[in-house]
Write a structure and sequence with these properties.
This is Yippee domain-containing protein. The protein contains 1 helix and 13 strands. By secondary structure, it is mainly beta. Bound molecules: zinc ion (ZN).
């Protein structure tokens, strides 16, 4: 049930000792840097990926599909349901990455990154969370 999933959501502490990735769309917490494996190079038709050993607050499709000859299941954020990555269900041989079987490959541009001091987009832009919940860039206010 969606209500149970929301109630059981894992939340990482937002402080200097904590580093983790979040969903760009709803800011759901997804995985700590401690579970980070590496970046995949971009594949044809696939954005750069972020590989990690474990994830929280995600939902996986039941039916596998092929991603460049690898059997994967699509992974969705369990709060906003956006498709944010894949999990490899068989041994996968991706250039630069090993031991991907059972692990996740998130789409780099669908994550935000809490680095212990600020929230950043995949392009390194600092994200400011306004009081009204608006998620925007750190643009300087016009005029003084
Ligand atoms: Zn989300």
């Amino acid at each position: 049930m969606a209500a149970a999933a929301a109630r059981d959501r894992v939340r990482y502490p937002v402080n200097a000792a904590s580093k983790f990735a979040l969903c760009t769309q709803c800011r759901n917490h997804l995985f700590p840097y401690a579970d980070f494996i590496g970046h995949s190079p971009p594949w044809p038709g696939v954005s750069q990926g972020v590989a990690c050993r474990a994830a929280v607050n995600v939902r996986e499709d039941d039916t596998p599909r092929l991603l460049h000859h690898h059997r994967v299941v699509n992974v969705h954020c369990n709060q906003c349901d956006r498709h944010i990555g894949e999990r490899f269900i068989e041994p996968a041989n991706v250039p630069g990455l090993h031991e991907l079987q059972g692990n996740y490959l998130f789409h780099y541009d669908k994550l935000l990154y809490w680095d212990g001091s600020s929230l950043r987009s995949s392009t390194g832009e600092e994200i400011i969370i306004h009081e009204n919940g608006y998620l925007g860039g750190a643009a300087a206010p016009g005029g003084l």
